[in-house]
Write a structure and sequence with these properties.
By secondary structure, the chain is of the alpha+beta class. It has one domain. Helices cover about 35% and strands about 10% of the residues. It has three helices and three strands, in the order E-H-E-E-H-H. Strand 2 and strand 3 form a beta hairpin. It is elongated.
Length: about 100
């Protein structure tokens, strides 16, 4: 899955070690480890990145997907719905209930 620049939280690769869930054994990850994950991957999974204005960037969601995929489980869940998406879903559910007479 590619990074969606419109809906994901883009961060510079140097900010990744500061993410709370990216700590290895209680320590911050080194830049060398991050670049190894980007170039070579870990357990067959590469950390997704994009090049923006000459700077290597990733997203918080891409980091979550990477951690989920390398832990042997399914990728991390997608980001929560926006307020407008929730409103549309509620309206659709109300229409269905009305159609059933509930």
């Amino acid at each position: 899955m590619a990074i969606n620049l419109h809906s994901e939280n883009i961060i510079h690769i140097g900010e990744v070690p500061k993410l709370p869930f990216m700590k290895g054994r209680g320590r911050r990850l080194s830049c060398a480890t991050l670049y190894r994950w980007i170039n070579n991957g870990l357990r067959g999974v590469k950390l997704e990145t994009v090049l923006i204005g000459g700077s290597r960037c990733t997203s918080v969601e891409a980091c979550e997907r990477f951690i989920g995929a390398t832990q042997g489980g399914s990728p991390a869940p997608a980001a929560c719905r926006t307020a407008s998406q929730r409103t549309k879903a509620v309206d659709a559910a109300k229409r269905q209930l009305d159609a059933f007479g509930i």
